[in-house]
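question for whoever is on the cluster today: can someone run the full assembly for these? two chains, 594 residues total. i dont have access anymore since they changed the login thing
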Amino acid sequence: MSTPQLLFKNRRPGETVFMEAYKATGGYSALEKALTKSSPDEIRNLVKESGLRGRGGAGFPTGVKWTFFPSDAPGPKYLVCNCDEMEPGTYKDGVLLAADPHQLVEGMILSAYALQTDVGYIFIRYAYERQAEYLRKAVEEAKAAGYIGKNILGSGFDFELLVHGSAGRYILGEETALLNGLEGQRPNPRMKPPFPATRGLFGRPTTVNNVETIANIPHIVNGGALWFRDLALTPGSSGTKLYGLSGHLNVTECFELPVGIPLREIVENYGGGMRGGRKFKACLPGGASTPYLTAEHMDVALDFDSLEKVDSRYGTAGVTAFDDQTCMVAATLNLIQFFARESCGWCSPCRDGLTMMRWLLETIENGEGTPEHLEMLKDQLKNISGNSFCALAEGAMGPVAGLLMHFEQEIVDHIEKGCCPFRD
Amino acid sequence: MAQEEKIDSVGLLDENGLAYFIAHAGELEHPRELVIDVLRAIQKNHGWVPDEGVELTATILGLEPIDVEEVATFYDKIFRRPVGRYPIHICDSICCWSNGGEELAELFQQKLGIAFGQTTEDGLFTLLPSCCLGVCGQAPAVMIHQRHYGPLSADDVDELIERLRREASE
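^ ran it for u. tokens below:
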């Protein structure tokens, strides 16, 4: 059975769809329907009923997030789309925008109407300049078609949409750091509360949503909440999901598949198995901050709840697979090097804790580790978890927790042999 | 807002760019939101952002230079020191790492005879480590002037360097 293609409906290799082709497959029909027939309240309720959960990694229910937003408050309010997408192993938003940028533009206008915000920003990472150019073109086309501007489709609703190019750094994906970045401030994360819904961009009520989350809104408006829920394979889940495959799989492409698809399907079917006839050893199921799954998890459904039950996370569904010749200590060291370097340095559990963690993993990987180093690693995991200012260090603990949960013996082997058992 | 005639871009922005930013800053309630745009424009023209670029950005946006500096130094894709004509960002994150990223980085260093952070004597190439570039399905990958190249084999590296050398000499 093939999955209905929503987000990748218009996707063709090497091509980018703009207004004419986008409209030809039903583009902007959701916007026309909503602005002429539905109230903002109705759209917000529809999104809540659809069960859509944030596609940026945290998985918070979008409709619930939107209920926190004071849509009737007077004065400027903002909708911000987070396209910082810098979590290693995650590239789905980049693929989506390269194929079909109008989906995000239509989604932004619809979401802004639902939330009654008059200005929207798309915050896009430096490395996605090509996608930023496509978006700028799509925004211009939408303006020319009367979908952006004053009194859109005679509804009395005004909306302006801006594309903001960033200049690197993973921390900008943290929503309050992103808001500082948008304002032109040094992008350290902000203290929460107040949450962005109360005091966000320029101190005004703001909602920050991921690209894929917002791109789903037109489809939900067109297909309805029940239809959207039924797309998922597991009870309590809803929708399709973009799965970006990477690592040692034969096929490392991005697929639109149902939420709740078993890991085995991803690895054996869509990923085409492991390269060179090797065996599957482990994977990051949803980006660099999600604890490893192993071969024993092959039949686990990839969705938010099922993965929490096995002490991992759905994250962004960017699946990075490792074969049986991969040293998991070295892989975890690589991940921690990333997080340590991308720490903004604001709080000590992150700034110093991750540096310490990197040193410990380096010592063990280099064959200089002792049983004390293993104890320190466990201790450090406890010290950092729950104690950092924002979610960066918390996320960094994902792979370390996974390493200790599933591959502690591999650490012990390094210590006992006095070298990395995977190196010649 | 700052007056156009008083601002000298010291060659870091062309006339149109300068006029655009001054006009745009004048329209915005929060001109500071343009900091990255101005810095990126200066870098595009000049290759990197010298002290004068930080001062120019501050002048255009009505800020103190320190306000600009604390932003500029945060981002790894804003260069506050000279770089070569082609800064090569080599991804060292997990997907590239699992597909020979370390060997690729080694190869670039060998071929160009420089280490990370250094620039070749002819001023053409600078090697920089980078976190995930967002093309994880095409690992191992590098980025040059916001264009991605991957997956790169040893032969591809030779060809890429050769092509850029040719482009530079034209």
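summary bc i know u wont read the tokens: The interface with chain A takes residues 29-30, 32-37, 39-40, 61, 70-71, 74-78, 92-95, 97-99, 130-139, 143, 146-148 of chain B (CB under 8 Å). The mean pLDDT of chain B is 95.
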